[in-house]
């Protein structure tokens, strides 16, 4: 008899799992325990004052991380991002990567990590194939994103520009093919 590898059996069994339940609000009250959002929600409550992220001069506790991820999740939900929808994350290593991953977990949305070294044709292909609706990125990638959009067929809802002190100021408007333009810092300071 033919034996199936351990990896292949795992892959087959995981493909039979039901899709995540849809949620109209973030976070879902019926979230299964142990999912990524539940882990942060628990840490934000039980370990609220413990350090979670050290990013240069910025330091966030688990309580801070939970609050910031929830603000981002609410913003993205208000922009139409929901369960199963892809959001591009085109950032170098920084705190906002972690916040975005947790926010998308709260929405049951898909994280599309985008290699920051890709050329515009590759970016265009990835965004078209994934159906990404929003992109979270820094202003230094604005020229590459505009060039990718110029190649056509992108249907982006918008770009959330992360402030980067070492880079240029985030565009408040710009290439209409990229959809709406918002500042990450404005999302974090909104009530």
> What would the average pLDDT be, to the nearest integer?
83
**Which percent band covers the strand fraction?**
15-25%
Which residues form runs of ≥5 with pLDDT under 50?
A: 4-20
Structural class: alpha/beta
Q: What is the gyration radius calculated from CA atoms? A: 18 Å
Q: Calculate the terminal CA-CA distance, rounded to whole Å.
A: 63 Å
The total count of helices amounts to 7
* Number of distinct beta strands: 7
Task: Name the overall outline.
Answer: globular
- Describe the main β-sheet briefly: 5 strands, parallel
Q: Portion of residues in helices? A: 40-55%
Q: Strand-and-helix sequence, N→C?
A: HHEEHEHEHEHEEH
- Strand order of the biggest β-sheet: 4-3-5-6-7
Structural overview:
- The chain has helices spanning 6-15, 36-46, 62-78, 95-107, 120-130, 142-150, 184-189; strands at 51-55, 58-61, 86-90, 110-113, 134-137, 158-161, 180-183.
- It has 191 residues and is an alpha/beta fold.
């Amino acid at each position: 008899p033919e034996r199936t590898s351990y990896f292949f059996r795992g892959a087959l069994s995981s493909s039979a799992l039901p899709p995540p339940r849809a949620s109209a609000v973030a976070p879902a009250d019926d979230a299964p325990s142990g999912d990524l959002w539940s882990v942060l929600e628990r840490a934000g409550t039980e370990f609220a004052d413990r350090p979670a992220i050290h990013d240069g001069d910025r330091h966030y506790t688990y309580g801070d991380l939970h609050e910031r991820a929830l603000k981002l999740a609410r913003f993205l939900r208000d922009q139409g991002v929901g369960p199963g929808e892809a959001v591009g994350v085109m950032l170098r290593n920084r705190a906002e990567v972690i916040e975005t991953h947790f926010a998308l977990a709260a929405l049951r949305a898909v994280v599309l990590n985008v290699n920051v070294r890709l050329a515009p044709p590759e970016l265009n292909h990835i965004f078209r194939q994934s159906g990404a609706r929003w992109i979270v990125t820094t202003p230094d990638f604005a020229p590459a994103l505009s060039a990718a959009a110029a190649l056509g067929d992108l249907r982006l809802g918008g770009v959330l520009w992360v402030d980067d002190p070492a880079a240029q100021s985030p565009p408040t408007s710009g290439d209409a093919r990229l959809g709406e333009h918002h500042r990450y810092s404005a999302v974090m300071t909104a009530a």
